Amino acid sequence: xxxxxxxxxxxxxxxxxxxxxxxxxxxxxxxxxxxxxxxxxxxxxxxxxxxxxxxxxxxxxxxxxxxxxxxxxxxxxxxxxxxxxxxxxxxxxxxxxxxxxxxxxxxxxxxxxxxxxxxxxxxxxxxxxxxxxxxxxxxxxxxxxxxxxxxxxxxxxxxxxxxxxxxxxxxxxxxxxxxxxxxxxxxxxxxxxxxxxxxxxxxxxxxxxxxxxxxxxxxxxxxxxxxxxxxxxxxxxxxxxxxxxxxxxxxxxxxxxxxxxxxxxxxxxxxxxxxxxxxxxxxx
Length: 284
Fold this sequence. Notes:
By secondary structure, the chain is an alpha+beta fold. The protein is built from ten helices and six strands.
């Protein structure tokens, strides 16, 4: 209500100030303030106002928005009158408008004809042909990680279970972790960067040292509050090809961009050929 009252007062003042001025077609909009030939409208203010802005916050937002609009309009008018080479500006604006229109049209055609769907077979084929490009910047591992308090019962059993990749051992760890584990991650079926677990261990013990991981497939560490158990079942050494699941998003982006470029080039060739055949191009 406060906002509408203030806006009402502002509108009344604007009406009185402009009652004798020239008639301006505002196309159904409600003017709030003008600077030179520019107008700020109530509808623009309301559309800019955040949906969760109410009460005094909405009044403050309206005051700031109007003040900023006026300052920008004054600065623009001042700058426009002091830029000697307006023709250069107009050329830049025209060039940008031309580029923007072409870009928007190309995007529209690309979205209509290509979309963003890339088949898994395409991803697989590209991956197989370019494995050298997708190299691991650190070791990737599969295995199991569990973190438990120092006073956890059955620790000796856990020391046996976490080293075994058997269904019986995993079932026991699952049940054990429900009531005891602070953190538990089973990732025998997913490759994870070793850094995901290096930061969870005291003193960043394993780093990205592949040799350390090969020598220590079962890591048990402790600090003042917890035991940490990491079993490494498989390793992809640093520098080896990344698993395809980690390269998939990058590959899709590459393939989409390739298709976009190919499509736009074909479109330009077709336009040129058709224009040439129809004698729409005149060389002087």
